Fold this protein.
Amino acid sequence: MKKKWMIPVLGFFLMLNLSAGSGEIEPELWKKALAIHESAIVIDTHCDTPMAMIERDINIGNKQSSTDVDLVRMKQGGVDSSFFAVYVSNDLDEKHPAKKALEMIDEIYLQVEANPNLAEMAFSARDIINIEKKGKRAILIGIENGGPIEGSLRLLRDYYRLGVRYITLTHVKNNDICDSSTAENPRWNGLSPFGREVVREMSRLGMMIDVSHISDKAFWDVLEVTRSPVIASHSCCRSICDSARNLSDEMIRGLAEKGGVIQINFFSTFLDPVYRQKANAIRKKIAPQRKILKEKFENNQNRYWDAWFELWKKHAPPPPEIDILINHIDHVARLVGVEYVGLGSDFDGASSYPVGLEDISGFPLITYHLLKRGYRPKEIEKILGGNLLRVFEQVEKMSAQ
């Protein structure tokens, strides 16, 4: 049964909190958008909230002021399901990163178990659907950076048993699986021999392969090796914003031909070329201060990222309008079809988001602006979560075969 009682709650909450920068909200269109939002299963494929859950000792069952995501604001934003990213820095790749990953996985379980009226752990596409029917949030686990596999397919299988349903193969540096899109030089020129084994085993297990962060050559290697469709859990379109972290049109076509989906990242630097140019200039200016923070928090990555975000907020340019995010969705829809695009916010892992999307409660604004652009309700439902569910189900089905 759909949660129709939430529509006035969402409407009241968001109408109070909309920034003037989002433009004039048309009441009738807004009402229609909320109805569509409630009829959809809304999925965010990448939230870095587990870092804060451990480091700041927060309870996601309560509304937080120091994070972008909690179960209260997920409900306010009509977000039915979120993949909580277990982020482990590449700097730990040679320092037994499995310990860090396992501690974060444990924390996710502890917090969901502590809030049984608000959320449940999910392990399949069907679980997401069933938990949504109960009016709860479905929480899934992804690992960002395959370093915690520690070169062992046995550990990979153990992560699957613990509920991990996707792995971002690397992060900002090359690891023993593949090259990173942001590494200065390639180590493997794509996937490593072990990386090919990892991709095959993930496909066999029914674990989604995440190509965000990996190099272009590694991306094509993944498509060659895997039998299953793949996801980019939090990436944007390179033709709009020229970042190595984004996918080129050719890559988006390849992803779609394999049946996969690109989940658009909300990070301003990957969305808006104007913001990106200004941000890069500021980063160069404050690079010495960032270096000091890296040295100060050398042994505590979470504290480092918190300190870096605080420094960044003091100098950051103003965020772009939400239209730029819709432009990326439009681009994918026109290039390969509306069936191959979704949403992966990168909340709690980035430092700037479009106006109105400062936290997860702003999700209905996306539905509103998609409707305003002329998308039909069924198309919007696909973008909000239907496409990801399709890929998830297909990965599970191919594993069973």
Q: What stands out?
A: Residues 1-9, 15-21 have pLDDT under 50 and may be disordered.
